[in-house]
Protein 1
Amino acid sequence: GDDIDARLYGGEVRATVRRDPERDQLELALLERAAARPLPVLGICRGAQILNVFRGGTLIGDIAEAFDAIDHRRTVLPRKTVTIERDSRLFAIVGKTRDRVNALHHQSVDRPGDGLRVVARDDQGLVQALEAPGAGFVMGVQWHPEFLLLDRGQQRLFRALVRAARDSTPPGAA
């Protein structure tokens, strides 16, 4: 998706990026409603970033611009290795401390928002996943698990989201 407007997190506004302020506002409103209910949230790529901004965190506006020496691969193939914290919900779901994931983003979480904990980083130290401990199922991943069809851990991530949604639905509600 388009970049999240830097004005939402106090970042540097760059004229060279595409922004979609209406999408930003829609997604922030959806996160507000999800938090009020509370509903499970799995933010993927831009979704992890907007979750972080919603919670008051900041972003790195352009990874390649911020870090000259960083290896920034953008590919749907699992070419990036992430290290997952053992005491995280993400680890409990995917069952690995190291995993190969894809990368299609050029923005990244910088300072985590209120109540969010970084639970995975890549080998270069960039944030790759965060979650809200003790707040139900609230998680964001920078990669695209929907493209990692043969990875059982990534399949379990979606199953966990569905289970959390089912468990949060009151009896008799559709």
Protein 2
Amino acid sequence: MTSANALIGNTKDNNDRYCFAKAGELCLISLPTGGSTDLDLSDAHGSFTVKSFNPRAVGKLTNGSVTSAEGGKSSPLGNAPGDVDQDWLFVARP
């Protein structure tokens, strides 16, 4: 996986959100202060599942307000299932 901050609109590589990706296989998005973002899957094909993870509590990947994203376009990731002003991770994979 490599840094892919541009996929979530963080072209300045600042500290408000991060993305690590392996093209067409996996995207890990970190939102340190919560909120939401869009994921640019313009160069990907097919459907991706989207799950969220609360790094403050050990547990499973869970569904957020968005559970899928389509390749070939930019898709909103939605909000995490709780504590929207806290840090959350999103996982998108085919």
